[in-house]
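Folds abound. Consider this:
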Amino acid sequence: MQMPKLHPSYFELNLELIHPCNQAHVDFLPDRPYALVLIRAPSDVQLMADLKLNGKEIEGADRVIFDRQKQIYCCYFAPSNIGKYKITVYGKRGHSQNGVHRSALELIMNVKNIPVSHISYPYTWPCFHDLDLKVIAPKYSANAVWNDDTSYAEVLMEAPDDVQLSCDIQYNDVIIENGSLAQFNNEKKLWQLLFAPERIGQYELIVYGKRTSGNESSSMPVVMFNLDVTELRHPMKFPTTYTPFERTKCQIYTPLDGILKKGSVVPIHCVIPNALDVRLDVDFKRIANEGYADSILQRQITVGSKEIIIYAKYEQESDYTRLAKYTVE
């Protein structure tokens, strides 16, 4: 029986391979479209892994989760084709972004049959698990769903109450301005992350997170999805939102399009939790306060020629806070 290939880092990091036990071969779990490797590690050790076929890394085929209670890393692998794969687990000490993950052990996965229900995993950073996040949709897929008759893709995520999420959409490593919107669905208690591509092509959808209860000043990337846009009939831009919009868990029902038509009458329907008052400025002029009650803003306005800005007044603040801005064309 072939044994796992152990590198010096395996012993230096005090790792313990729990499953598979005393063998190098890994198989699919019974009635599951993935294999599982279990490794016990100290709490100050960070692991990552990859799955390679003929020396080429398979994107979306691996996921690593740390079970803090059991001090065990759960490493999932989901190959999409038959073949002899190499699993490599890398490790380093410390949870900062600095330092290099070094090869710790190698295993073999000889795939002769592929389960019908093939899955893939989005790329995750360590913060994904540190913040206790969960992807609700897309389920078990590295790719966001794109429908040709829509203008944007959606990712739904679950997060603790003290975690704030944001997002962006990138094309050829360039962020698309007003191409994403992060908002909180207060009814379902989920983060709704929306992404609007500009053209046909391949995109990266990146979600960021941070705790609001600690001293963290900036968000860190937590998860990345791929988006393949094959047809785009109605490109759009989202409204500009500001940090308080995400921090106070606001949500826009309508209009989601951030560019409004001059002179049109537009219904505005938003959730703005726990504000003392909400106001709208049209072309830098404040209009009469109305339509806000029980954390819901619902009213109609006539679009001017420049912009519309939504402000909220909170108990702990002396002035109105800017939440969102629409432009006019």
User: Anything to note?
Assistant: The mean pLDDT is 94. The CA atoms of residues 162 and 215 lie 12 Å apart.
